[in-house]
Specification:
The chain is an alpha/beta fold. The chain has one domain (about 10-255): Rossmann fold (3-Layer(aba) Sandwich). The protein has helices spanning about 15-30, 40-50, 65-75, 100-125, 150-170, 190-195, 195-205, 215-225, 250-255, and strands at about 10, 30-35, 55-60, 80-85, 130-135, 175-180, 235-240. A seven-stranded parallel sheet has the order 3-2-1-4-5-6-7, with helices on both faces. Helix 1 packs across helix 8 and helix 3 (about 65-75) packs parallel to helix 4 (about 100-125). The protein is globular and about 55 Å long.
Length: about 270
């Protein structure tokens, strides 16, 4: 038997990137998986590659009703034992120029969507005898990134929510953890990777000296949701090549064309 035989994982943002990396790891170890996301074609393409133990659920995590229907259907097919709150969006703008609509867009998916996923999935896990949940945070949850205040805040809030949920739900047999990836090749990180100077600034702040992959992060999620981590809850695991040991990246080159009089960055990472 595989280590996850009988497990059923519900993964938001599961059609690509880190969600797909996690799904691949779960399926490899015998779990059944439901991929949740907003785009049916993307989910169905991923499911076709992963195999017959994978089903799809089209829902926006920021829409409580859509998510409730998706989770109920998934649990009805097979009792849920694992939930991965991975769906997320990015964005960058100067703090003083960040519109309320942009703030709310990021918070709705990254924080409220994760809350709804974990709250509702947690109810099913409790009914089913317990299980594990993992949220996908970011190095930006603990290390500031200039011009990404909304994103930083959404991930910092997510990490506190994980710790709070873990404290409450342990008595129900539910473990709650998070991973905090560094720079990984996903759709969200495309703009960060597209500028060579920004990508290099990330790289030189990683002791392991390389960009991460979705499989690196997927394997960490799989570990935190599997039996090997049965005595671990309430942790935020950095999966970032050691980037958390140093400083946040300089993304100024991405904003400079759009922000007049951008403060210069000194060689040591400070600002003049």
């Amino acid at each position: 038997m595989s280590m996850l035989d009988g497990a059923h994982a519900f993964i938001t943002g599961g059609g690509s990137g880190i969600g797909l990396g996690a799904a691949t790891a779960f399926v490899r170890d015998g779990a059944r998986v439901t991929l949740c996301g907003r785009t049916a074609a993307k989910l169905e393409a991923a499911a076709a590659v992963l195999g017959p133990d994978v089903e799809v659920a089209v829902a926006d995590v920021g829409d409580e009703q859509q998510l409730a229907v998706a989770l109920a259907a998934a649990n009805g097919r097979s009792p849920l034992t694992i939930a991965v709150a991975n769906a997320g969006v990015g964005g960058a703008s100067p703090f003083l120029a960040t519109e309320l609509a942009e703030w709310e867009r990021i918070m709705t998916t990254n924080l409220t969507g994760a809350f709804l996923t974990m709250r509702m999935a947690g109810g099913y896990l409790a009914e089913n005898g317990g299980g594990a949940m993992c949220a996908v945070s970011s190095i930006a949850g603990s290390t500031t990134h200039r011009f990404m205040s909304a994103y930083n805040t959404s991930k910092a809030g997510l990490e506190m929510m994980v710790r709070s949920a873990a404290d409450e739900l342990g008595s129900l047999g539910i473990r709650v953890n998070a991973v905090a990836p560094g720079l990984v090749e996903t759709e969200i990180s495309g703009s960060l990777r597209g500028d060579d100077s920004v990508a290099e600034d990330y790289r030189i702040n990683m002791p392991l000296g390389r960009q991460g992959t979705v499989d690196d992060t997927g394997a960490a999620i799989r570990f935190l949701c599997g039996p090997e981590s049965s005595w671990i809850t309430g942790v935020v695991l950095p999966v970032d090549g050691g980037h958390h040991l140093r400083r946040g990246p300089n993304i100024d080159p991405l904003l400079a064309p759009f922000v007049p009089d951008l403060p210069a960055v000194s060689p040591d990472g400070g600002h003049s």
